[in-house]
């Protein structure tokens, strides 16, 4: 057997690698897949896994190639890559060496996650003011998780360690799989029928996005939002965030953390009770000491030992104060009388009656003077008017016409002053003192002065 030929692992691995690298179908291929387990090394190289629904392959994109990327790869991103398949000798596994990468969009589950997250956020399901307060010291806690998982053991251990007084009710719940979302919704509804439950914990351990997907279903999110009992979620690990975490009244990073925030620590409560007891006792002793000191002062006081003497002294003080008050009242009354007398004298001295009579006499004199002045002025104006009226009467054409004169008007209503203003056949109106004569010109004769 020692004469048989054999290969080393290195030789075999190199042979397989050579086969990969010389295969024209593997030297340049295009793949479309979803990125997971992405890691960007400090030296610039990118290591990740490319997967679809049924298989996965390790991949690497060296810094010399990824420096030209126009985007940063992320877990869940759907990409189209070009590269070659070869063997990584040290680990003896084949992997894809990526030379080019184009974003084809994120994976279907991540797209659905972001779309539902945006929709529920617009509807207000994530708003802080709509979250129900968590009871500080719950009496009855409902737990919704798988009975067989590690999460239930962590939750129970934590609750019993921190606050064993709380009543616990477990609602065995499917936390992954096709029927998980219906089961979660149903158990939330069942828990809400128990009015004694004041806190609910919805939890499960870590897993892939596919395994955690029931907690990203819209029906589960709405059931959490509509629950009358406040719900604490503890789904996955610290880096896992689901739609249920956004809707819940309080999000814890893990199932254990959810149990911790659901109840107070019994050690903290015992410590607080001890501190409160000390504070009460201290306040009580201080109150007792104060009361004793007050009682001691009262028992030593003069009033307590000689009450009759104190009463007599107070009666004498009262008489003295009464006499003093009466004396002050008499003095004040006398002073007020003197002030009243002075005020009366001053009023009599400055009484307005003499001034009123003087003003009345002055007013009567001024009134008579104004009347006389007006009568004189009226008579003067009346005489002036009569003289002007006589002058107007002398110049008035009416008086002239009364003496036998007349005034002729042409058809335009203008006065005819000269013979040149008329011509034979023209109509004239002759104005007399008592009327008007309409006439026609038969002839015009100019008067000559010889």
From TrEMBL:
GO biological process: DNA catabolic process
Listed GO CC annotations: cytoplasm; exodeoxyribonuclease VII complex
Domain OB-fold nucleic acid binding: 7-101
Name of one Pfam family that matches: Exonuc_VII_L
Chain ranges of the Exonuclease VII large subunit C-terminal domain: 125-440
Top-level lineage group: Bacteria
Keyword Lipoprotein: no
GO molecular function, one term: exodeoxyribonuclease VII activity
Coiled coil: 311-338
Compartments where found: Cytoplasm
Alphabetically ordered keywords of this record: Coiled coil, Cytoplasm, Exonuclease, Hydrolase, Nuclease
Catalysed reaction equations from the record: Exonucleolytic cleavage in either 5'- to 3'- or 3'- to 5'-direction to yield nucleoside 5'-phosphates
Binding partners and assembly: Heterooligomer composed of large and small subunits.
PANTHER family found in the cross-reference section: EXODEOXYRIBONUCLEASE 7 LARGE SUBUNIT
Record's protein name: Exodeoxyribonuclease 7 large subunit
Source organism: Pelagirhabdus alkalitolerans
């Amino acid at each position: 057997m020692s004469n048989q030929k054999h290969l080393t692992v290195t030789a075999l691995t190199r042979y397989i690698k050579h086969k990969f690298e010389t295969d024209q179908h593997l030297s340049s291929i295009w793949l479309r897949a979803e990125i997971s387990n992405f890691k960007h090394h400090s030296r610039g190289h990118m290591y990740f896994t490319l997967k679809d629904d049924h298989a996965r392959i390790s991949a690497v994109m060296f810094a010399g190639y990824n420096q030209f990327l126009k985007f940063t790869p992320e877990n869940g991103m759907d990409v189209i890559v070009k590269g070659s398949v070869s063997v990584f000798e040290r680990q003896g596994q084949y992997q894809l060496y990526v030379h080019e990468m184009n974003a084809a969009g994120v994976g279907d589950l991540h797209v659905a996650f972001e779309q539902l997250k945006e929709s529920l956020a617009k509807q207000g399901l994530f708003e802080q003011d709509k979250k129900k307060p968590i009871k500080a010291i719950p009496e009855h806690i409902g737990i919704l998780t798988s009975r067989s998982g590690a999460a239930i053991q962590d939750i129970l251990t934590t609750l019993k360690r921190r606050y064993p007084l709380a009543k616990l009710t477990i609602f065995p719940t499917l936390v992954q799989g096709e029927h998980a979302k219906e089961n979660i919704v149903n158990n939330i509804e069942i828990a809400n029928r128990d009015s004694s439950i004041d806190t609910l914990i919805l939890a499960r351990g870590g897993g892939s996005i596919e395994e955690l997907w029931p907690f990203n279903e819209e029906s589960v999110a709405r059931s959490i939002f509509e629950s009358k009992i406040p719900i604490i979620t503890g789904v996955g690990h610290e880096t896992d965030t689901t739609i249920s975490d956004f809707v819940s009244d309080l999000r814890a990073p893990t199932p254990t953390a959810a149990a911790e925030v659901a109840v107070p620590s019994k050690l903290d409560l015992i410590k607080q009770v001890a501190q409160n007891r000390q504070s009460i006792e201290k306040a009580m002793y201080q109150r007792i000491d104060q009361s004793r000191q007050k009682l001691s002062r009262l028992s030593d006081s003069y009033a307590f030992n000689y009450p009759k003497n104190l009463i007599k002294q107070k009666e004498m003080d009262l008489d003295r104060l009464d006499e003093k008050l009466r004396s002050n009242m008499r003095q004040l009354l006398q002073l007020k009388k003197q002030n009243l007398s002075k005020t009366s004298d001053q009023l009599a001295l400055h009484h307005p009656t003499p001034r009123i009579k003087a003003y009345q006499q002055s007013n009567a004199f001024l009134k008579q003077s104004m009347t006389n002045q007006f009568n004189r002025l009226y008579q003067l104006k009346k005489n002036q008017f009569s003289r002007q009226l006589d002058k107007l009467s002398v110049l008035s054409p009416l008086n002239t016409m009364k003496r036998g004169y007349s005034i002729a008007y042409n058809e335009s209503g203008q006065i005819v002053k000269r013979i040149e203003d008329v011509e034979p056949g023209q109509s004239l109106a002759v104005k007399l003192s008592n009327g008007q004569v309409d006439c026609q010109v038969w002839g015009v004769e100019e008067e000559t002065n010889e």
